[in-house]
Predict the structure.
Amino acid sequence: MILILKNGVTPERVKALCAEISEKFGVQPWPSEGAAQTLIGLVGDTSGLQQSVMETLDGVARVIRVQEPYKHANRAFHPGDTRIVVGGVEIGGPRIVLCAGPCSVESEAQVCGVAADVKAAGAAMLRGGAFKPRTSPYAFQGLKAEGLLYLKNARKQTGLPVVSEITNPGQAELFNDFVDVFQIGARNMQNFELLRQVGQCRKPVLLKRGFANSIEELLMSAEHVMSGGNPNVILCERGIRTFETATRNTLDISAIPVLKARSHLPVMVDPSHAGGIAWLVAPLSKAAVAAGADGLLIEVHGDPKNALCDGKQSLSPAEFAALVEVLRPVAKAVGRDL
Ligand code: PEP
Ligand code: MN
């Protein structure tokens, strides 16, 4: 439920109203002051609240019942686009952010080399997995803490903020020292303990959509993080499971405009895991940019054929550089910069 306040309502009245709401109705008021209008979002179980009663509160002009079960992530509650700044890089603004790097950190030389290459080509952020959730227990599981150290060194050398996947709530302290953005992987999108943990952190969270999860479930997972106190969530569409077998997953292009309509949070797209094949990365990236994505997460490896993880879908640094040039006119055509 959202209360739209009367024009010119004083900050003292807003404060008093919030106190009255939490005391009388047992829900949490979240005031949001806009240029023209002040709103109060009510978080908690609002099912028993009557619209007509709320409209009689002093200072309230109108009451909207929000059907969606997510409030913090809801655009109705926060009409403007949220912009998240990570180490000087703005996500959700006019510039499309490219985050590139290897699926997994394999060595210091590997990740520092790729970081320098993707930076030179136009990437603003570096990705790299250190703790790898793999389908097979026999596959490479990542360099773990050592990998995080190499990522930190790559950041030191290039200045690129680092994104890496956290797989366990117990890793939060370690990650806090080494990464700029906590990535929640598709397999952990509904790991509520993990969501609660990153909700208590201040660093931005890149939340990937589970491959069998709906858009609403993705937004509810964002809600878990945001209601825990961390408003800095970046949503990421990375392909979902369908009956199609020609590609690793099916990139849900519609998720981009739907997420942008329902939520104010920035939306990134991972064309690498969506298509699962290197040559599909360019067409899927173009489609994502055209559909309104705020950024792309792309796997790049210095030697894709010998990568320890996801080499088939990884671009070489030269292929990544070529892709950036192909994307520039697409971004321009939809009024964005790259
Ligand atoms: C990844 O980004 O390396 C990854 C494992 O992605 P996802 O969680 O989307 O499968
Ligand atoms: Mn990967």
Summary: The chain has two domains: 2-64, 84-333.
